[in-house]
Amino acid sequence: MAKVLFVNPTVRQEDNPLHIPYGIALLAAISDKKGHQVQILDANAWRPDDDELREAIKSDRWDVIAIGGITTTYGYTKKVLKYTKEDSPKSLRVIGGGILTSMPQDMMKLIPEIDIGVIGEAFVTFPEILEKIDKKEQNWESVLGIIWRDKYGKSHLNPERALISDLDQLPYPAWNMLPMKEVYFKNSSLLYSEEAYSSKVRMDINGSFGCPFICRFCFHLGLAGDLHYDNPNNDQADTIFTHNRINRVHSPHYLVKMVKYMRDNYGTDFVLFFDENLLAMNVYMKNQWLPEICRLWIEEGLQPQCTKDNVPHDPKKCKGVHWGGTSHATLANPELLAQMHEAGCSQLLYGYESFSKRILKNVGKGATPQTNERSLHMTLDAGIRPIPNQMMGFPDEFFDSLIDCVNAWERMGIVVKPFFATPYPGSEWYYKYKDKILEQYGYSGNRESDYLEALDAFLIDLGDATKITATISQYFTPVELLGLRELMVNRAIKRIKEYEKHWRSLHNIHGEPSFDDVKWAPAQQKRKDAGASQLANIKL
């Protein structure tokens, strides 16, 4: 059987390792169940220096060294694959996750050490790769959902793979292969709610894949039915992302059984749902999914004692498992929130994005300033702490939208420090504003080498969303966005209006500005239209 080393790349070096690598832990469990020899080098947990990293790579004769993650891990992933080729040249080098799925052809050019890239969901694809390794086969043409490099260095994109229909067939993540006690439990505390802050043994789960909304800043990267190829008959084609969705959930029985396992075997006291949007998925499941989870949570004895007794939370006395996740402002309702609180939900993160009517309309989230405000008060009334999340620097951001946000914060009595709107690969914004993005990293539309150099610089620059990378704002420079955010946080509306007068004088703009959208490049528009038509009738 194959000897496999999974590498979890470092995520946000400036922060503690807070969350388990859920996808890698699932693939490790699947591979282990099939009899392969599996180890995980959790670089995000241990933070090894380069010498320690290379020693781990050289520590055995690995058949496969696999790494994956989101685009923000690009710099570390590139380094790991370089060391792998130098220190373990006979190993097959495999990459997966959003970092590859969002731009497979570009990634194969940017990182020549890649042998195979897994596009989209890897639960079936990766075991097939290992099976071929066992049989000593090197003909990758038959494996769906991969991009691979031939002996001449040329990349080939194989036909896409369908998503699995039943998530409950997945095993539990391989927690036993991760430094749970040594690292993750020590970083259990999260400053989101009293219950999360006092947690000693927090664990994370993923109850669903997908989201029915089409937020233009968001990316799904092959897990929600939105992935397709711009030309299925051309192995030099690339991936595209449409508004089509195939949303999938674990059954309530599966999830509650998993949480019981966590509590019984690890003493878990808090569970954080990784799901993109719990309330959205509940609506997708005809409003029956979350209520059934709540019912089973209580029935199986997971309800926190403080909630059961209706008393303030005391971590020294409270038994049971508190939990939290994500929500959507338009979908919050008192009855559901009350059920969730009774079952132990202590926090919900709301992506409010903005309190400007214009901004929210163009983002495509389906929310309004009024639904944003209403959801916060409704959630507080239910006994759940709402976590407001916002961005700034949208394409149509202007002084009025910034002031709208500050006024809303004042009315609601909340403190927010917005993230910067970032066009991550795989999002609609990335493809729509790609020329503008790369121009900011020195690309002028000439040679491919210049394009790759600019793209490489942009990807390395990605990371913490509080940091400005490429801006897509029509009217504000990065320096202006940094300064304006500070004024917003300090509620300095007077200063914002003063700068607006100065800004209008500099740019000779008086009255309402024109919010002209940056147009799609012809090739990108063609890819988008083709993908939309090809996906229209696809079902699992």
UniProtKB/TrEMBL annotation:
One of its GO terms (cellular component) is cytosol. Keywords: Iron, Iron-sulfur, Metal-binding, S-adenosyl-L-methionine. PROSITE patterns: B12_BINDING. Residues 3-140 form the B12-binding domain. SUPFAM superfamilies: Radical SAM enzymes. Its cofactor is [4Fe-4S] cluster. The keyword S-adenosyl-L-methionine applies. It holds the Pfam family Radical_SAM. InterPro entries: BchE-like, Cobalamin-bd, Elp3/MiaA/NifB-like_rSAM, Methyltransferase_Class_B, rSAM, rSAM_sf. Gene3D superfamilies: Cobalamin-binding domain. One of its GO terms (molecular function) is metal ion binding. This is B12-binding domain-containing radical SAM protein. It comes from Candidatus Yanofskybacteria bacterium CG10_big_fil_rev_8_21_14_0_10_36_16.
